[in-house]
Amino acid sequence: MFLRNCWYVAGWSHHFPEDGLVARTILGDPIVLYRKRDGDVVALENRCCHRHAPLSRGRQEGDDLRCMYHGLKFAPSGKCIEIPQQDIIPSTAAVRSYPVAEQDCWVWVWMGERAQADRALIPRALNHNDPDWFMLTGELAYDANYELINDNLLDLSHLSYVHQSTLGRNSMSWGESRPTATRIERGLRIARWVVNHPRPNYLGLPPGSLSDMWASYDYMVPGVFLLATKSYPAAWPLSATCRHRLPSPIGYRPPRRQ
Q1: CATH superfamily membership of 146-243
Q2: Taking a C-beta distance cutoff of 8 angstroms, is the pair 14, 139 a contact?
């Protein structure tokens, strides 16, 4: 079962060039996406209403999309606006059009009722154009039920076991840490201190150094995870009680230590 009235990521912004048709399958729906001349992304049902030919095999003509089987042309609204050798266009000649939003370097598609598409429901992420951050993009395909992926990411204690030699860094710090879970709007926030953890290479600390890491991740319906971490020298001078009172590092910058 899928949650329909939600935003789903169709891809990174750079997956959708100025000219080109991109096919996606989201919640079992075949979708074709392309950019209009003003740069906005259009998402249409990837199935012509005439003989169900994939529109992703068609041709973009300005802001419109032509099916290359029998030549029907569709506007970004999904309405058929031209049928070769026919002046009358039935009002039912149309394909579904999906609401689209481009935000934080992702292209989002609303899969439910159009009237309920609210951009405010899109989880905010760090913008890749922010000069204060060095960001990389990537993707990983899972051949598994999405509910199993949600289950996997909701409990990162498995890092000490499944990813022992990589993210776990041959340490039991993740497995032995105790998380706290808090309800947030349309989701769940899980936070924990991972103490005496082997330092990550990007901190530039000497080999063998340990660090204390504050990790917080938000699970947002239907399956978006926003993870943020902050690392500090091991045994930095704050009591355990004070540590757990710190807010999530998302959007938070701690004061400089003297």
Answers
A1: Naphthalene 1,2-dioxygenase Alpha Subunit; Chain A, domain 1 (3.90.380.10)
A2: no
Q: What angle do CA 142, 145, 147 make, to 5 degrees?
A: 110
Q: How many residues belong to the chain?
A: 258
Q: Beta partners for 182?
A: 189
Q: What is the pLDDT of residue 148?
A: 93
Q: What angle do CA 200, 202, 207 make, to 5 degrees?
A: 55
Q: What residue spans define the domains of the chain?
A: 7-121, 146-243
User: DSSP code of 238?
Assistant: -
Strand partners, 214: 193, 230
What gap in Å lies between CA 110 and CA 68, rounded to an integer? 27
Beta partners for residue 183, in sequence order:
188
Strands 100-103 and 106-110: antiparallel
Q: What letter would DSSP give residue 15?
A: G
Which pLDDT belongs to residue 38?
97
Cα–Cα distance for residue pair 50/44, rounded to 1 Å: 15
| Rounded Cα–Cα distance for residues 236 and 231 (Å) | 10
**Phi and psi dihedrals of 99, rounded to 5?**
-60, 140
* 3-class DSSP assignment, residue 64: strand
**Mean pLDDT per 10-residue section of the chain, whose length is 258 residues:** 94 94 97 98 98 97 97 98 95 97 95 96 80 82 91 93 91 92 94 88 80 91 90 67 45 38
**Do residues 109 and 31 make contact, with C-beta atoms less than 8 angstroms apart?**
yes
Using the CB atoms, write b or e for 24-39: b if 16+ within 10 Å: beeeebbbbbbbeeee
